[in-house]
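Friendly challenge for the regulars: who can give me the structure tokens for this chain first? No prize, just bragging rights.
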Amino acid sequence: MKHSHEKCLNAAIEATKCQARQEAAGDCFTALIDGVSFTAQDIRGFISFGVRIVVGIIYEGNMLRYISVAADDDLGAGEYDVGLDGKVTIGYMIESRGEPTLEYPAEEGKADIFCASESEFSGTFDVKLIEGAPYKTITKATFKVSNLQRLS
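First reply, four minutes later:
Bragging rights claimed.
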């Protein structure tokens, strides 16, 4: 994952831990992970380090599951390749209290960005996760977040 995307993701994850759950009307983040439904309970959008990012979160007891989409903030609407070091990166993370965070970045795929502005980040994507991961694909993903927060 690009260094700037990784910095923004880390800052976004920390910010989500410090704030109450939130989801604005109309915000969404849904996907299929190896065919199993992922519907985020909490959706956050951020701009930081030259990156626009949305994080969808599911809370399951002591475990959190995240899908993140990060894109260089100079990208507008359009279709983009997803890769480990591309202008668009996507990942799936599982965090359990007291355990190391498991990270599964996407190594290839396509993302279609519908809107990338100060007030909205939305689109769709289908990706293949890194070889050797216990999960293979994230498909039929749709995300939309309003009111992106600036992180420093």
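The longest helix spans residues 3-18. The longest strand covers residues 102-116. Your move, everyone else.
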